[in-house]
Each structure stands twice: as structure tokens, then as C-alpha cells.
Amino acid sequence: MDKQLPQLRIGPVEIGFPVVQAALAGYSDWPMRVIARRLGAPYTIAEVMLDRFVVQVATGRKARRYIRLDDEEHPCGAQLMGSQPAELLPAAEKLVRAGFDVIDLNFACPVKKVLGKHRGGFLLGRPQTALEIVARLRDALPAGVPLTVKMRSGLDDTPESRQMFFEIFDGAFRLGAAAITVHGRTVRQRYEGKSSWQFIRQAKQHAGSKTVLGSGDLFTPQACLEMIEQTGVDGVTAARGAIGNPWLFRQARALAAGEPIRPPSLDEQREVIAEHYRLAEEAYGPRRCCRVMRKFGIKYAKLHPQPQAVRDAFVAVANSGEWQEVLNKWYP
User: Fold this and answer.
1) Which CATH number fits domain 8-256: 3.20.20.70, 1.20.120.1760, 3.40.50.300, 3.40.1000.70?
2) At what angle do helices 221-231 and 197-207 cross, to 10 degrees?
3) Which residue among the candidates 76, 109, 289, 290 is catalytic per the annotation?
4) pTM here?
5) Whether residue 109 lies in the annotated active site
6) How far is CA 173 from CA 155, 185, 195, 212, in A?
7) In sequence order, what DSSP letters do the residues of 2-28 get, joined into one string?
8) CA dihedral 85, 76, 113, 203 (to 10 degrees)
9) Over the stretch 74-99, which tens digit does the pLDDT of each residue have?
10) HSE-CB for 192 with a 13 A CA cutoff
11) What is the rounded average pLDDT for all residues in the chain?
12) Per residue in 192-213, pLDDT tens?
């Protein structure tokens, strides 16, 4: 079926189809990951978690919500963010005990408050600290649990930033990272402008046979396969393009197999949105669930023939009954 595409493998973990769901802060929770898996994502990564949060806060109901992992999700990765190896180690070990198959380090987040705490993309300017984190975690994790890294193309476009990128990139592989995901924007760019697929191609060529995944501007199944073809990466991670469109993975599989891309009917959309709400209610409880699902409803509405009206309807929802009314009216 997918003979023309590389079969993705991360260390000892077999993924298969090379279009996967990225970690998405505030989005890739248990319900979203389950829906994505059911619609063709071979691998998903949980939303980024702070090391201190995992160790100190994620207990009881919060642990069930943020560190929940069901049998149907394997393989599934957990993304960690922090600034000190000593704090990241116990968090990574806790996530492994929870059953996550891969630990992914975030050296990419461009959010101002994250950078101010010396986390995420800030570490692209601190190669020594970044590589110490990789070394300490790789030594501490079980041999069968791959360690991966998410990077942006640098802090900015300066030669010094580019040099630090490759210092971390090469060093992480040397220290045992099983794969590195490269987002084709700098930290300074945040989400502005286009992702540089040319830089992603350069990083993959530099890595040779080592596993590199690409990220950035993957909003359609065509873009996912084009990035693989144009850059030579071993796989791609769909991020914002997968929010409210879990059919992206099914469509990418169809396109790779030479089959026509079939957009989801309103019946299919209704069924998936209703199931997503049911899973979210199970995860968050009936009171919080509605607030969580509004942001997903806004994204799901983009696929509807009347996106603005449906978006407004989801925004106004205050309880499960009203959510059902929106489905009855707009997804008959």
C-alpha cells in the first residue's frame, strides 16, 4: 500500500506510515490522540508537559487526564520541556512508567514566557546545556525507550545560530537520540512566514541515514507527502493541520496508495465530533469538557460548508445539551 514511501521507525519502535501527529500544546490530549489514531495516524505525541508539572502536579485526576494512555494508542510519545537535567529525569521516568513508548524533548517552543524560563527554543542558544540534557536522559531511560528531540532551525537566521543548531543536532545523535524533528522556522519567526523546507532538506542530507522528521506548513495530505518527497525526510509530523481535521491521516494514506482523497461527509463529521466530545467528557468531566471542546469545535467548523455560522454556534455552547443541538442543526 505504502511502497513508495519510507516506513518510519524510531529506534526499536516500529511506526510504519510516515505521517504522524505532532505534540500540540493545549490540544493533543488523550481524546484528540485517540480520534487521530482511529482515523489513520500511526503514531501520536502527547501535548508538551513541563517537567515540574509531571513530577509535582500530575497526580489523581490530573494524572489520569494528562498522563492517560490507552492500549489502542501504542506507540505513543510524550513530549517534555524543562531547563535542568535533574528535573527532567524524574519526569521522564514517570512518563515511561505510565506506558509512553517514546520520550521527546522540546527544544523548539517559541512562546515568550517559555523562553523567559530558559526552556524550549531558548536551549537552541545553549548547546552545552541542551546536550547535557540529552546525555543524562538517554543514560537514565530504559534501552527500549527511544529518546527523540524537537528542534527549530535556530534562534534566528544568523550564522552563529545555524552553527549552534548543528552542534546540538549532531551532538544529540552522537549521544543516542533515535530521531530528531526539525521545524523549518526559527524561534524568532514563531509561526510567521513559511517553513523552510530547504533547511529541512539540508538537515536531512547532513544526517545521512539517521532518522529525521520534518515539520511546518503541513495542512493538507498533499503537503505531507510533498515534504517527504522534496526534503528526503523519514517522516513528517502534522501539527496545526491536524487540529479539527483528523481525516488528514486517512487522506494521506489514500493519496500515498494512489487512491482518491475523500473528504468527510457531514455524517462522518458528526460521528467523529460526537465521539470526540464523549471522550473529552470522560477525561475532563461534564463541567470542564465544554470549555475544552469549544476550541476543537472552532477547528472542526472549517470543514463545514457554512464554517462561520457553525463556528459561532460552537463558540456559544455552554453544556452538552447545547453541543448536541449544534450537531442536530448543522450536521443532520
Assistant:
1) 3.20.20.70
2) 50
3) 109
4) 0.94
5) yes
6) 20, 21, 23, 10
7) -TTSPPEEETTEEEESSEEEPP-TTT-
8) 80
9) 999 999 999 988 889 999 999 999 99
10) 7
11) 93
12) 889 999 999 999 999 999 999 9
